[in-house]
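Hello, quick one for you while I still have it in my head. My current little project is about how a certain protein chain folds up. You're getting the sequence in one-letter code plus the fold written as tokens. Would you mind checking whether the tokens look sensible for this chain? Here's the protein in full, and shout if anything looks odd to you:
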Amino acid sequence: QVQLVESGGGLVQAGGSLRLSCAASGRTFSRYAMGWFRQTPGKEREFVAAINWSGGNTYYADSVKGRFTISRDNAKNTVYLQMNSLNPEDTAVYYCAADGRYYSGASQYNSEYNYWGQGTQVTVSS
């Protein structure tokens, strides 16, 4: 069982930056691919970024490519999402997720993630 806790959300002006963190419990974090997703009211949860178990492979949604960076520190059981050049369309609740399969690749499909955090709100004002 993996528990995930996101932090770092908040209110920022357009053009600004935020860094989200997701702390994971358990001793097997380093074996899991991790992902970030986001959701706004009335819409389905959408993929943002993913990173494989080693950190050597990353994958981004087209809407955030070049602005967001996903990374991980396996020694700290933490995955990060650095978000730059934010715009109001990035406003959402952001969730981190863990793929419970060992040594899997970075996936954009939320059905492949077994564990989810509670989410952190990001609001970008214009």
Notes: The longest strand covers residues 92-102. The CA atoms of residues 15 and 85 lie 4 Å apart. The two ends are 40 Å apart (CA to CA).
